[in-house]
Protein backbone atom coordinates (compact mmCIF):
# COMPACT_ATOMS: atom_id res chain seq x y z
CA UNK A 1 0.00 0.00 0.00
CA UNK A 2 2.82 2.37 0.92
CA UNK A 3 4.61 1.66 -2.37
CA UNK A 4 1.41 2.31 -4.31
CA UNK A 5 0.86 5.57 -2.46
CA UNK A 6 4.42 6.65 -3.08
CA UNK A 7 4.16 5.89 -6.78
CA UNK A 8 1.20 8.20 -7.05
CA UNK A 9 2.77 11.14 -5.32
CA UNK A 10 2.95 14.16 -7.57
CA UNK A 11 6.68 14.68 -7.39
CA UNK A 12 7.45 11.01 -7.79
CA UNK A 13 5.14 10.35 -10.72
CA UNK A 14 6.45 13.35 -12.63
CA UNK A 15 10.07 13.12 -11.47
CA UNK A 16 11.56 12.82 -14.97
CA UNK A 17 9.47 15.69 -16.28
CA UNK A 18 10.65 17.86 -13.41
CA UNK A 19 14.22 16.72 -13.97
CA UNK A 20 14.14 17.45 -17.71
CA UNK A 21 12.51 20.83 -17.10
CA UNK A 22 15.13 21.76 -14.52
CA UNK A 23 17.87 20.66 -16.92
CA UNK A 24 16.47 22.82 -19.72
CA UNK A 25 16.20 25.82 -17.39
CA UNK A 26 19.75 25.37 -16.12
CA UNK A 27 21.11 25.03 -19.63
CA UNK A 28 19.19 28.06 -20.91
CA UNK A 29 20.35 30.18 -17.97
CA UNK A 30 23.96 29.10 -18.36
CA UNK A 31 24.01 29.79 -22.10
CA UNK A 32 22.39 33.19 -21.61
CA UNK A 33 24.88 34.16 -18.91
CA UNK A 34 27.82 33.02 -21.02
CA UNK A 35 26.63 34.76 -24.16
CA UNK A 36 25.38 38.06 -22.74
CA UNK A 37 27.08 38.63 -19.42
CA UNK A 38 30.32 36.78 -18.71
CA UNK A 39 32.75 37.49 -20.22
CA UNK A 40 30.52 39.50 -22.58
CA UNK A 41 33.26 40.34 -25.06
CA UNK A 42 35.42 38.92 -27.84
CA UNK A 43 38.79 37.31 -27.14
CA UNK A 44 41.87 37.59 -29.32
CA UNK A 45 41.46 33.91 -30.23
CA UNK A 46 38.01 34.69 -31.62
CA UNK A 47 39.39 37.63 -33.60
CA UNK A 48 42.00 35.30 -35.11
CA UNK A 49 39.20 32.93 -36.08
CA UNK A 50 37.28 35.78 -37.71
CA UNK A 51 40.37 36.38 -39.88
CA UNK A 52 39.88 32.92 -41.39
CA UNK A 53 36.21 33.60 -41.95
CA UNK A 54 37.26 36.72 -43.86
CA UNK A 55 39.49 34.56 -46.08
CA UNK A 56 36.55 32.27 -46.79
CA UNK A 57 34.33 35.20 -47.73
CA UNK A 58 37.07 36.38 -50.09
CA UNK A 59 36.92 33.04 -51.92
CA UNK A 60 39.67 31.05 -50.17
CA UNK A 61 38.10 27.71 -49.21
CA UNK A 62 41.25 25.89 -48.18
CA UNK A 63 41.09 26.79 -44.51
CA UNK A 64 41.16 24.69 -41.36
CA UNK A 65 37.79 24.14 -39.62
CA UNK A 66 35.97 24.97 -42.85
CA UNK A 67 32.42 23.96 -41.73
CA UNK A 68 32.65 26.19 -38.65
CA UNK A 69 33.84 29.20 -40.66
CA UNK A 70 31.21 28.58 -43.34
CA UNK A 71 28.53 28.72 -40.65
CA UNK A 72 29.86 32.03 -39.37
CA UNK A 73 30.21 33.45 -42.89
CA UNK A 74 26.54 32.67 -43.52
CA UNK A 75 25.57 34.50 -40.32
CA UNK A 76 27.66 37.52 -41.34
CA UNK A 77 25.89 37.65 -44.70
CA UNK A 78 22.44 37.31 -43.18
CA UNK A 79 22.69 39.37 -39.98
CA UNK A 80 25.87 41.42 -40.18
CA UNK A 81 28.97 41.42 -38.00
CA UNK A 82 28.30 41.69 -34.27
CA UNK A 83 29.28 40.03 -31.03
CA UNK A 84 26.20 37.81 -31.36
CA UNK A 85 26.94 36.57 -34.89
CA UNK A 86 30.57 35.94 -33.97
CA UNK A 87 29.59 33.77 -31.00
CA UNK A 88 26.37 32.22 -32.31
CA UNK A 89 28.08 29.26 -34.06
CA UNK A 90 29.62 28.22 -30.74
CA UNK A 91 26.30 28.56 -28.93
CA UNK A 92 24.51 26.54 -31.59
CA UNK A 93 27.09 23.78 -31.58
CA UNK A 94 27.12 23.58 -27.79
CA UNK A 95 23.32 23.23 -27.76
CA UNK A 96 23.71 20.39 -30.25
CA UNK A 97 26.46 18.86 -28.09
CA UNK A 98 24.31 19.05 -24.96
CA UNK A 99 21.43 17.36 -26.79
CA UNK A 100 23.71 14.63 -28.14
CA UNK A 101 25.28 14.08 -24.71
CA UNK A 102 21.87 13.80 -23.09
CA UNK A 103 20.67 11.09 -25.47
CA UNK A 104 24.03 9.35 -25.25
CA UNK A 105 23.83 9.26 -21.45
CA UNK A 106 20.22 8.08 -21.70
CA UNK A 107 21.45 5.11 -23.70
CA UNK A 108 24.33 4.35 -21.37
CA UNK A 109 22.83 5.22 -17.95
CA UNK A 110 19.47 5.45 -16.22
CA UNK A 111 17.44 8.63 -16.91
CA UNK A 112 18.07 10.04 -13.44
CA UNK A 113 21.82 9.63 -13.79
CA UNK A 114 21.70 11.32 -17.19
CA UNK A 115 19.88 14.36 -15.76
CA UNK A 116 22.13 14.71 -12.70
CA UNK A 117 25.42 14.24 -14.53
CA UNK A 118 24.51 16.53 -17.43
CA UNK A 119 23.57 19.24 -14.93
CA UNK A 120 27.09 18.99 -13.53
CA UNK A 121 28.63 19.03 -17.01
CA UNK A 122 26.77 22.18 -17.96
CA UNK A 123 28.13 23.96 -14.88
CA UNK A 124 31.81 23.24 -15.56
CA UNK A 125 33.90 26.26 -16.50
CA UNK A 126 35.15 24.63 -19.68
CA UNK A 127 31.65 23.81 -20.92
CA UNK A 128 30.31 27.32 -20.27
CA UNK A 129 33.34 29.09 -21.72
CA UNK A 130 33.38 27.04 -24.91
CA UNK A 131 29.64 27.57 -25.29
CA UNK A 132 30.24 31.25 -26.01
CA UNK A 133 33.73 31.14 -27.54
CA UNK A 134 34.12 30.96 -31.32
CA UNK A 135 37.15 28.70 -31.21
CA UNK A 136 37.84 25.16 -32.45
CA UNK A 137 37.38 23.78 -28.93
CA UNK A 138 33.62 23.54 -29.37
CA UNK A 139 34.07 21.31 -32.43
CA UNK A 140 35.87 18.63 -30.43
CA UNK A 141 33.03 18.33 -27.92
CA UNK A 142 30.17 18.48 -30.42
CA UNK A 143 31.69 16.13 -32.96
CA UNK A 144 32.81 13.57 -30.40
CA UNK A 145 29.34 13.57 -28.80
CA UNK A 146 27.61 13.02 -32.14
CA UNK A 147 30.01 10.27 -33.20
CA UNK A 148 29.47 8.32 -29.99
CA UNK A 149 25.70 8.84 -30.10
CA UNK A 150 25.27 7.72 -33.71
CA UNK A 151 27.62 4.77 -33.20
CA UNK A 152 25.64 3.71 -30.11
CA UNK A 153 22.35 3.90 -31.99
CA UNK A 154 23.77 1.79 -34.81
CA UNK A 155 25.20 -0.86 -32.50
CA UNK A 156 22.00 -1.05 -30.46
CA UNK A 157 20.01 -1.43 -33.71
CA UNK A 158 17.77 1.53 -32.99
CA UNK A 159 15.06 2.61 -35.42
CA UNK A 160 16.15 4.46 -38.56
CA UNK A 161 19.50 2.65 -38.56
CA UNK A 162 20.23 3.78 -42.12
CA UNK A 163 19.81 7.42 -41.13
CA UNK A 164 22.24 7.04 -38.20
CA UNK A 165 24.83 5.47 -40.48
CA UNK A 166 24.57 8.34 -42.96
CA UNK A 167 24.77 10.95 -40.20
CA UNK A 168 27.75 9.17 -38.63
CA UNK A 169 29.56 9.19 -41.96
CA UNK A 170 28.77 12.88 -42.54
CA UNK A 171 29.98 13.90 -39.06
CA UNK A 172 33.17 11.84 -39.30
CA UNK A 173 33.93 13.31 -42.73
CA UNK A 174 33.23 16.88 -41.54
CA UNK A 175 35.45 16.31 -38.49
CA UNK A 176 38.44 15.75 -40.77
CA UNK A 177 38.50 19.50 -41.46
CA UNK A 178 39.54 19.92 -37.79
CA UNK A 179 43.15 19.10 -36.83
CA UNK A 180 43.85 15.73 -35.19
CA UNK A 181 40.36 14.33 -35.69
CA UNK A 182 41.72 11.97 -38.34
CA UNK A 183 43.74 10.38 -35.55
CA UNK A 184 40.75 9.94 -33.26
CA UNK A 185 38.52 8.64 -36.06
CA UNK A 186 41.13 6.12 -37.16
CA UNK A 187 41.56 4.97 -33.58
CA UNK A 188 37.82 4.50 -33.04
CA UNK A 189 37.47 2.57 -36.31
CA UNK A 190 40.34 0.26 -35.34
CA UNK A 191 38.80 -0.28 -31.90
CA UNK A 192 35.44 -1.08 -33.50
CA UNK A 193 37.09 -3.62 -35.78
CA UNK A 194 38.86 -5.25 -32.84
CA UNK A 195 35.65 -5.77 -30.85
CA UNK A 196 33.81 -8.93 -32.10
CA UNK A 197 30.29 -7.51 -32.01
CA UNK A 198 31.01 -4.12 -33.57
CA UNK A 199 33.20 -5.83 -36.19
CA UNK A 200 30.24 -8.03 -37.07
CA UNK A 201 27.99 -4.95 -37.45
CA UNK A 202 30.51 -3.29 -39.78
CA UNK A 203 31.98 -5.99 -42.02
CA UNK A 204 29.62 -8.96 -41.95
CA UNK A 205 27.95 -9.86 -45.22
CA UNK A 206 24.55 -9.27 -43.65
CA UNK A 207 25.24 -5.57 -42.95
CA UNK A 208 27.94 -4.76 -45.50
CA UNK A 209 25.60 -3.45 -48.22
CA UNK A 210 23.76 -1.14 -45.79
CA UNK A 211 26.93 0.90 -45.35
CA UNK A 212 27.10 1.87 -49.04
CA UNK A 213 25.01 5.09 -48.79
CA UNK A 214 27.01 6.15 -45.73
CA UNK A 215 30.27 5.52 -47.56
CA UNK A 216 29.10 7.65 -50.50
CA UNK A 217 28.17 10.50 -48.12
CA UNK A 218 31.58 10.23 -46.49
CA UNK A 219 33.31 10.57 -49.86
CA UNK A 220 31.18 13.54 -50.90
CA UNK A 221 31.73 15.48 -47.68
CA UNK A 222 35.47 14.77 -47.54
CA UNK A 223 36.13 15.29 -51.28
CA UNK A 224 36.84 19.06 -51.00
CA UNK A 225 39.29 18.36 -48.18
CA UNK A 226 41.18 15.81 -50.29
CA UNK A 227 41.32 18.30 -53.16
CA UNK A 228 42.67 21.10 -50.95
CA UNK A 229 45.30 18.79 -49.45
CA UNK A 230 46.52 17.63 -52.86
CA UNK A 231 46.62 21.22 -54.11
CA UNK A 232 48.36 22.68 -51.04
CA UNK A 233 50.72 20.53 -48.98
CA UNK A 234 51.00 23.30 -46.38
CA UNK A 235 47.26 23.04 -45.81
CA UNK A 236 47.69 19.28 -45.36
CA UNK A 237 50.15 19.89 -42.52
CA UNK A 238 47.77 22.38 -40.89
CA UNK A 239 44.57 20.35 -41.15
CA UNK A 240 46.29 17.17 -39.99
CA UNK A 241 47.77 18.98 -36.98
CA UNK A 242 51.39 18.10 -37.72
CA UNK A 243 52.39 21.77 -37.97
CA UNK A 244 51.19 22.46 -34.40
CA UNK A 245 52.97 19.59 -32.61
CA UNK A 246 55.29 20.49 -29.75
CA UNK A 247 57.83 17.85 -28.77
CA UNK A 248 58.59 19.33 -25.34
CA UNK A 249 56.62 16.61 -23.58
CA UNK A 250 57.31 17.75 -20.01
CA UNK A 251 56.13 21.28 -20.74
CA UNK A 252 53.02 19.92 -22.47
CA UNK A 253 52.13 17.65 -19.54
CA UNK A 254 52.52 20.62 -17.21
CA UNK A 255 49.97 22.51 -19.31
CA UNK A 256 47.51 19.62 -18.98
CA UNK A 257 47.98 19.49 -15.20
CA UNK A 258 47.52 23.26 -14.92
CA UNK A 259 44.40 23.07 -17.10
CA UNK A 260 42.56 20.58 -14.90
CA UNK A 261 44.32 20.14 -11.56
CA UNK A 262 45.99 23.45 -10.68
CA UNK A 263 44.86 24.64 -7.21
CA UNK A 264 45.14 28.39 -7.89
CA UNK A 265 43.00 30.13 -10.57
CA UNK A 266 44.92 31.73 -13.41
CA UNK A 267 44.20 33.04 -16.92
CA UNK A 268 45.49 31.49 -20.14
CA UNK A 269 44.45 32.78 -23.59
CA UNK A 270 41.47 34.51 -22.08
CA UNK A 271 40.20 31.42 -20.22
CA UNK A 272 40.16 31.13 -16.44
CA UNK A 273 41.74 27.85 -15.39
CA UNK A 274 41.50 25.23 -13.96
CA UNK A 275 38.60 24.39 -16.25
CA UNK A 276 36.88 22.08 -13.75
CA UNK A 277 36.34 22.52 -10.01
CA UNK A 278 37.71 20.13 -7.39
CA UNK A 279 34.43 18.38 -6.55
CA UNK A 280 33.75 17.58 -10.20
CA UNK A 281 37.30 16.28 -10.63
CA UNK A 282 36.76 14.01 -7.60
CA UNK A 283 33.65 12.50 -9.20
CA UNK A 284 35.56 12.00 -12.46
CA UNK A 285 38.39 10.24 -10.63
CA UNK A 286 35.84 7.96 -8.94
CA UNK A 287 34.36 7.23 -12.36
CA UNK A 288 37.84 6.51 -13.74
CA UNK A 289 38.52 3.95 -10.98
CA UNK A 290 35.22 2.19 -11.67
CA UNK A 291 35.80 2.26 -15.42
CA UNK A 292 39.24 0.71 -15.09
CA UNK A 293 37.89 -1.98 -12.76
CA UNK A 294 34.99 -2.85 -15.07
CA UNK A 295 37.09 -2.76 -18.21
CA UNK A 296 35.14 -5.60 -19.85
CA UNK A 297 31.91 -3.58 -20.31
CA UNK A 298 31.25 -1.88 -23.65
CA UNK A 299 31.09 1.55 -22.02
CA UNK A 300 34.40 1.07 -20.22
CA UNK A 301 35.93 -0.37 -23.36
CA UNK A 302 35.17 2.79 -25.36
CA UNK A 303 36.21 5.26 -22.64
CA UNK A 304 39.45 3.48 -21.75
CA UNK A 305 40.54 3.15 -25.37
CA UNK A 306 39.62 6.80 -26.05
CA UNK A 307 41.72 8.01 -23.13
CA UNK A 308 44.59 5.70 -24.04
CA UNK A 309 44.62 6.96 -27.63
CA UNK A 310 44.49 10.57 -26.40
CA UNK A 311 47.56 10.35 -24.16
CA UNK A 312 50.21 10.62 -26.92
CA UNK A 313 48.21 13.38 -28.60
CA UNK A 314 47.96 15.43 -25.40
CA UNK A 315 51.67 14.91 -24.76
CA UNK A 316 52.45 16.58 -28.10
CA UNK A 317 49.50 18.95 -28.55
CA UNK A 318 48.07 20.05 -25.17
CA UNK A 319 46.06 22.84 -26.83
CA UNK A 320 43.54 20.22 -28.00
CA UNK A 321 42.75 18.99 -24.49
CA UNK A 322 39.05 19.37 -25.34
CA UNK A 323 39.33 16.09 -27.25
CA UNK A 324 39.03 14.24 -23.93
CA UNK A 325 36.07 16.30 -22.69
CA UNK A 326 33.42 13.77 -23.71
CA UNK A 327 35.19 10.78 -22.05
CA UNK A 328 35.61 12.96 -18.95
CA UNK A 329 31.88 13.71 -18.95
CA UNK A 330 31.16 9.98 -19.18
CA UNK A 331 33.51 9.38 -16.25
CA UNK A 332 31.58 12.04 -14.32
CA UNK A 333 28.31 10.22 -15.00
CA UNK A 334 29.94 6.98 -13.91
CA UNK A 335 31.01 8.62 -10.64
CA UNK A 336 27.48 9.89 -9.96
CA UNK A 337 26.09 6.45 -10.74
CA UNK A 338 28.56 4.83 -8.34
CA UNK A 339 27.69 7.15 -5.46
CA UNK A 340 24.00 6.28 -5.78
CA UNK A 341 24.81 2.59 -6.16
CA UNK A 342 26.86 2.51 -2.94
CA UNK A 343 24.08 4.27 -1.05
CA UNK A 344 21.43 1.91 -2.38
CA UNK A 345 23.62 -1.04 -1.51
CA UNK A 346 23.63 0.08 2.14
CA UNK A 347 19.83 0.18 2.15
CA UNK A 348 18.66 -2.48 -0.31
CA UNK A 349 15.11 -2.76 1.08
CA UNK A 350 14.44 0.54 2.87
CA UNK A 351 12.50 2.81 0.48
CA UNK A 352 12.79 5.83 2.81
CA UNK A 353 16.58 5.54 3.07
CA UNK A 354 16.88 5.04 -0.69
CA UNK A 355 14.68 8.07 -1.30
CA UNK A 356 16.75 10.10 1.15
CA UNK A 357 19.90 9.14 -0.74
CA UNK A 358 18.38 10.34 -3.99
CA UNK A 359 17.32 13.63 -2.41
CA UNK A 360 20.80 14.13 -0.97
CA UNK A 361 22.34 13.46 -4.40
CA UNK A 362 19.97 16.00 -5.99
CA UNK A 363 20.95 18.56 -3.34
CA UNK A 364 24.65 17.81 -3.90
CA UNK A 365 24.31 18.21 -7.66
CA UNK A 366 22.28 21.39 -7.19
CA UNK A 367 24.90 22.92 -4.92
CA UNK A 368 27.73 21.91 -7.25
CA UNK A 369 25.85 23.29 -10.27
CA UNK A 370 25.12 26.64 -8.63
CA UNK A 371 28.67 26.80 -7.30
CA UNK A 372 30.10 26.11 -10.76
CA UNK A 373 27.98 28.78 -12.45
CA UNK A 374 28.73 31.28 -9.67
CA UNK A 375 32.45 30.55 -9.93
CA UNK A 376 32.35 31.09 -13.68
CA UNK A 377 30.38 34.36 -13.48
CA UNK A 378 32.64 35.89 -10.84
CA UNK A 379 35.79 34.74 -12.62
CA UNK A 380 34.90 36.30 -15.96
CA UNK A 381 33.04 39.34 -14.71
CA UNK A 382 35.11 40.41 -11.72
CA UNK A 383 38.71 39.39 -12.40
CA UNK A 384 40.39 42.37 -14.11
CA UNK A 385 42.72 40.27 -16.27
CA UNK A 386 39.88 38.08 -17.51
CA UNK A 387 37.72 41.11 -18.30
CA UNK A 388 40.47 42.92 -20.23
CA UNK A 389 41.13 39.88 -22.39
CA UNK A 390 37.59 40.05 -23.78
CA UNK A 391 36.96 43.20 -25.76
CA UNK A 392 33.53 44.84 -25.97
CA UNK A 393 34.78 47.30 -28.56
CA UNK A 394 32.70 45.92 -31.42
CA UNK A 395 29.43 46.44 -29.55
CA UNK A 396 30.65 49.83 -28.37
CA UNK A 397 31.50 51.13 -31.82
CA UNK A 398 28.26 49.80 -33.31
CA UNK A 399 26.15 51.47 -30.61
CA UNK A 400 27.98 54.81 -30.46
CA UNK A 401 29.26 55.46 -33.99
CA UNK A 402 27.75 53.30 -36.67
CA UNK A 403 24.11 53.52 -35.69
CA UNK A 404 23.79 56.85 -37.55
CA UNK A 405 26.58 56.28 -40.05
CA UNK A 406 24.48 56.34 -43.21
CA UNK A 407 25.76 59.73 -44.37
CA UNK A 408 29.25 59.59 -42.92
CA UNK A 409 32.52 58.16 -44.08
CA UNK A 410 34.63 56.54 -41.41
CA UNK A 411 38.29 55.66 -41.34
CA UNK A 412 39.18 53.25 -38.55
CA UNK A 413 42.84 53.19 -37.56
CA UNK A 414 43.39 49.90 -35.75
CA UNK A 415 46.21 47.72 -34.44
CA UNK A 416 47.27 44.69 -36.46
CA UNK A 417 45.76 42.25 -33.93
CA UNK A 418 42.37 44.00 -34.18
CA UNK A 419 42.30 44.32 -37.95
CA UNK A 420 40.46 41.06 -38.84
CA UNK A 421 37.49 42.11 -36.71
CA UNK A 422 37.18 45.53 -38.32
CA UNK A 423 37.83 44.12 -41.79
CA UNK A 424 34.79 41.89 -41.35
CA UNK A 425 32.73 44.85 -40.13
CA UNK A 426 33.91 47.01 -43.04
CA UNK A 427 33.09 44.36 -45.65
CA UNK A 428 29.55 44.03 -44.36
CA UNK A 429 28.91 47.76 -43.97
CA UNK A 430 30.28 48.59 -47.40
CA UNK A 431 27.92 46.05 -48.97
CA UNK A 432 25.09 48.14 -47.55
CA UNK A 433 26.46 51.45 -48.88
CA UNK A 434 27.82 52.59 -45.53
CA UNK A 435 31.41 53.61 -46.20
CA UNK A 436 34.00 52.32 -43.73
CA UNK A 437 37.68 51.91 -44.47
CA UNK A 438 40.25 50.23 -42.27
CA UNK A 439 43.87 51.24 -41.84
CA UNK A 440 46.68 50.08 -39.59
CA UNK A 441 48.63 53.32 -40.09
CA UNK A 442 48.15 57.07 -40.46
CA UNK A 443 45.23 58.17 -42.67
CA UNK A 444 46.16 59.05 -46.22
CA UNK A 445 46.22 62.61 -47.43
CA UNK A 446 42.90 63.94 -48.67
CA UNK A 447 40.89 62.23 -45.93
CA UNK A 448 39.77 65.49 -44.29
CA UNK A 449 36.08 64.86 -44.92
CA UNK A 450 36.07 61.49 -43.23
CA UNK A 451 35.62 60.80 -39.53
CA UNK A 452 38.82 59.22 -38.28
CA UNK A 453 38.44 56.81 -35.37
CA UNK A 454 41.60 55.52 -33.70
CA UNK A 455 41.43 52.55 -31.34
CA UNK A 456 43.25 52.63 -28.04
CA UNK A 457 45.68 49.91 -29.16
CA UNK A 458 46.48 51.76 -32.39
CA UNK A 459 46.95 55.12 -30.64
CA UNK A 460 49.60 53.61 -28.39
CA UNK A 461 51.66 52.65 -31.44
CA UNK A 462 50.93 55.56 -33.82
CA UNK A 463 52.07 59.12 -33.17
CA UNK A 464 51.69 62.35 -35.06
CA UNK A 465 48.05 62.08 -36.16
CA UNK A 466 47.45 65.44 -37.90
CA UNK A 467 44.29 66.61 -36.21
CA UNK A 468 42.47 67.31 -32.99
CA UNK A 469 40.48 64.97 -30.79
CA UNK A 470 36.76 65.76 -30.85
CA UNK A 471 35.48 62.83 -28.83
CA UNK A 472 36.72 60.00 -26.63
CA UNK A 473 34.52 56.91 -26.46
CA UNK A 474 34.86 54.92 -23.25
CA UNK A 475 33.49 51.81 -21.63
CA UNK A 476 32.91 50.90 -17.98
CA UNK A 477 36.36 49.42 -17.32
CA UNK A 478 38.24 50.78 -14.33
CA UNK A 479 41.46 50.60 -16.32
CA UNK A 480 42.07 51.09 -20.06
CA UNK A 481 38.53 52.37 -20.45
CA UNK A 482 39.39 54.84 -23.23
CA UNK A 483 38.60 52.68 -26.26
CA UNK A 484 38.22 55.05 -29.26
CA UNK A 485 39.52 58.50 -30.16
CA UNK A 486 37.55 60.44 -32.77
CA UNK A 487 39.68 62.92 -34.71
CA UNK A 488 38.99 65.93 -36.87
CA UNK A 489 41.90 66.06 -39.29
CA UNK A 490 43.79 69.24 -39.99
CA UNK A 491 43.21 70.96 -43.34
Describe this entry's structure for a reader:
The chain is of the alpha/beta class. The protein has two domains: about 1-385, no CATH class; about 390-490. It is built from 24 helices and nine strands. It has helices at about 1-5, 10-15, 15-35, 45-55, 65-80, 85-110, 110-120, 125-130, 135-155, 160-175, 180-195, 195-205, 205-210, 210-230, 235-240, 250-260, 280-295, 300-315, 325-345, 350-380, 385-390, 395-400, 420-430, 455-460; strands at about 40-45, 265-270, 270-275, 390, 410-415, 435-440, 450-455, 465-475, 480-490. The strands form three sheets. The protein has a five-stranded mixed beta sheet with strand order 6-5-7-9-8. A hairpin with a 2-residue loop joins strand 2 and strand 3. The longest helix is centred in the C-terminal third of the chain and has 32 residues, at about 350-380. The model has no long low-confidence stretch (mean pLDDT about 85).
Number of helices: 24
Task: Give the helix level as a range of percent.
Answer: 55-70%
Characterize the largest beta sheet: strand count, sense, and whether it forms a barrel: 5 strands, mixed
DSSP, total strands = 9
Share in β-strands: 5-15%
| Strand line-up of the largest beta sheet | 6-5-7-9-8
Query: What would you report as the Rg, rounded to the nearest angstrom?
Result: 26 Å
Mean pLDDT: 85
* Number of structural units classed as domains: 2
N-C termini distance: 94 Å
Computed structural class: alpha/beta
Which residue ranges are poorly predicted, with pLDDT under 50 across at least 5 consecutive positions?
none
Overall 3D form:
globular
Amino acid sequence: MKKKTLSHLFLYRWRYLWGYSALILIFSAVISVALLYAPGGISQSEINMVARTNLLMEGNWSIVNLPLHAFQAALFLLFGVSTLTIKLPAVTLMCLAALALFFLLRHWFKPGIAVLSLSLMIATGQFIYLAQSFTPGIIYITTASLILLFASLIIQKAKFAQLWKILLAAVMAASLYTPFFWYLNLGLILVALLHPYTRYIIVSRKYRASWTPAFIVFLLVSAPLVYFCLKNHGFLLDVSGWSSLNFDVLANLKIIVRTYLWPVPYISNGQVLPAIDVSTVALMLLGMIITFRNWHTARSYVVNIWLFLSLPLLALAPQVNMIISVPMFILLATGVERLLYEWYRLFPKNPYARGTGLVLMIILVGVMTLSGVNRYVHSYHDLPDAVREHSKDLSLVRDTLLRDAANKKYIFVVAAAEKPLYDALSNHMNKHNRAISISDGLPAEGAQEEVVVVTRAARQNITGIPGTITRVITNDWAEAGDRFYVYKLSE
